[in-house]
Amino acid sequence: MDAIVEKPDKKKGTQVRALIGPDDVKSAAAAAKASPPGDEAIHDINDTELPYLTLRRRGKAVRWVVRSHGKTKVFGSAIGIHVDRTYLTLRAARDRAKRVYVELADAGPAAAIGETWTWGDLDREYQAMMSKPRYVNRRRKPASKSTSDDIRLAFAKPSLQALHPKRLTKLGLKALEDALEKIESFRQREKCCAYFKAALTWAASKKRSASGLTADTPRWWNDLSAGDPDEDTMDAMEARREILLLRKSELEVGHIGELLARHERYCDGREAEEKISPGIRFGLWWVCLTANRRTSTVKLLRKGLKAEDEFNPGMGRAMWPADTMKAKIPFWLPLPPAVRDVALGSIADYTQLVANGHGSWSSKWVFASTRRHGRNPDNDDVSVYPNSLNKHIRVMREGQTTKSKRVYAPVLDGLPYFSLHLARTVMANFIDKHVSPRASSLVLAHTLPQTDKEASTTTIEHYLTTQRMEIKSEAMMAWTEALIAAVKAAGGSLPTPKETPRASKIRNGKGP
Predict the structure, then answer these.
(1) Could you report the per-residue pLDDT of 403-421, keeping only the tens digit for each?
(2) Which of 67, 119, 242, 440 could bridge across to 431 with cysteines, CB 3.0–4.6 Å?
(3) Which own/partner pairs from 121-124 qualify as long-range (CB within 8 Å, at least 24 positions apart)?
(4) Closest Cα to residue 375, out of 49, 89, 78?
(5) What is the Cα–Cα distance from 177 to 122, expressed in whole angstroms?
(6) Closest C-alpha among 94, 67, 64, 69 to residue 79
């Protein structure tokens, strides 16, 4: 922990600013355990990544605290995993702190009567607005957690935090340019610049009276720029672009078929506590067969899966609500039988695996995690974590030595570099060539101009006109046939459920 320790006080304890790590939590827990009776000194570690997050030790207690917008809220314990229901791991505390921060922002103090907003007020109000559904172009647009996180991290930059006391009406281009220049990363400067301009534009359009940015206020912030990257940054950007283009040009459908065949053999070789979970095993097949993004893959709900499509006999259908899609519009995808069976196989293997270990324990997810609790301890039904799919690819590429000291050798030697997103490129190129560019965009959930006429989601008109399922069906059939042929050419076969019934660890055969 590289820390800045503020002046200690025997009665007040210590104040430290550092990136809170697992060792800090362990040290605080040990110090709390050894704390003598009557010790009420407060010892804080204030996080540098989330400036409002604090790990606070006081006497025998170690708590997670958020301090922001003139308020302090204790929201969990860092100790007592087996006895304290409020216990949060470091990762869970970071996730919860973001929500608490927004809650405090929603309840933040308004500017005094007659006073217009400061940048601190706009920071708070804009983040609160972006964390909720919005009405955009006469449509409800769901909030995006990733965008909210991006904005929070951008506005937490010290040079922007320093502007909090300034009235918006007193801000100017020079002050903002100076603040941006203090941000070392070019990409971060770009993000900060974009979000700052968006926040000011929102205030000038939607909160004129409160912000003081009236119709007569010149929109000087439109001229704000992140500047240009330096020479070293440009060289690094070009190098990354060249690597990406090379990887895109090398990977073909045959390589993905070979990868999936090796993936199945790799999963067969891992057993007991080291086995690959159904969500990961079938999830990789799903990504390669559908080109879904990893997040939309793991967030597919069972109620969004139809084994039989009433409008297209013989095919299945997957449906995602707007809030799970990058474009924030509902998305449907026709499923050839082989693709549908991948989803059903994941559900079947998960159900049997959990029944063997815990008794009956249903899930709402198609690609469910076998973890009983996720990073949010209040949630006992979690999907596979998106990055777990990336990690599985990395382990197959690099090999792994497990906790039990068993060594698994790399299995992707001789294949071009593969990533989940590159699978989208290969599928797009294939459909472009063998079906049509329009079909490619539709299957990959790229936004297209809306039709003039919309219909209820239960009608054939919506099925054909809004979701364009006939075009998607042709593309999905062509790609699925090509990929299955590639898998078989590599000596592989389609995945099938492998979990078999055995005596449950729960005597009565029922879960909690």
Answers:
(1) 888 899 999 999 999 999 9
(2) 440
(3) 121/210, 121/211, 122/168, 122/199, 122/200, 122/203, 122/211, 123/155, 123/160, 123/164, 123/199, 124/69
(4) 89
(5) 18
(6) 64
Whether the CB-CB separation of 149 and 245 falls below 8 Å is answered with no
What confidence score (pLDDT) does residue 468 get? 84
**Residue 370 identity:** T
Closest CA to 111 of 158, 63, 70: 70
For residue 294, give the nearest of 218, 384, 360, 363 by alpha carbon: 384
pTM listed for this prediction? 0.69
The whole-angstrom separation of Cα 351 and Cα 361 is 7
- CA 211 → CA 118, 120, 419, 434, distances in Å? 8, 11, 45, 54
pLDDT at 333: 93
Give yes or no for residue 141 having a pLDDT over 80. Answer: yes
Q: Please give the radius of gyration of the chain, using alpha carbons only, rounded to the nearest integer.
A: 26
Q: What is the mean pLDDT of the chain?
A: 86
**Which parts of 87-195 are beta strand (E)?**
134-136, 139-141
pLDDT-wise least confident of 5-14, 170-179, 207-216, 467-476: 5-14
Share above pLDDT 90 across residues of the chain, in percent, rounded to a whole number: 54
pLDDT, residue 461, reads: 58
Q: What is the mean pLDDT of residues 484-499?
A: 95
Q: How far apart are CA 154 and CA 179, in angstroms?
A: 12
Kindly report, residue by residue over 148-178, the tens digit of the pLDDT. Answer: 999 999 999 999 999 999 999 999 999 999 9
Give the helix/strand (H/E) hosting 44: strand 42-47
For residues 87 and 76, the answer to whether their CB atoms sit within 8 Å is: yes
Query: How far from each other are the two terminal CA atoms of the chain, in whole angstroms?
Result: 40
Cα dihedral: 473, 479, 482, 487 (round 10): -110
Report the distance separating Cα 60 and Cα 451, nearest Å.
63
Given pLDDT bands bounded at 50, 70 and 90, which one contains residue 378?
Answer: low
Number of H-type helices and E-type strands within the chain? 18, 13
Query: In the predicted model, what is the mean pLDDT of residues 307-325?
Result: 90
Helix axes 278-290, 469-489, angle to 10 degrees: 120
Give CA–CA dist 3/19, Å, rounded. 8
Structural tokens at position 259: 């990868």
Whether the Cβ atoms of residue 303 and residue 343 lie closer than 8 Å to each other: no
User: For residue 349, what are the CA distances in angstroms to 275, 289, 363, 496?
Assistant: 12, 19, 12, 9
State the pairing for strand pair 139-141/316-320: unpaired
- Report the 10 Å Cβ neighbour count for 442: 22
Count other Cβ atoms within 10 Å, centred on residue 263.
24
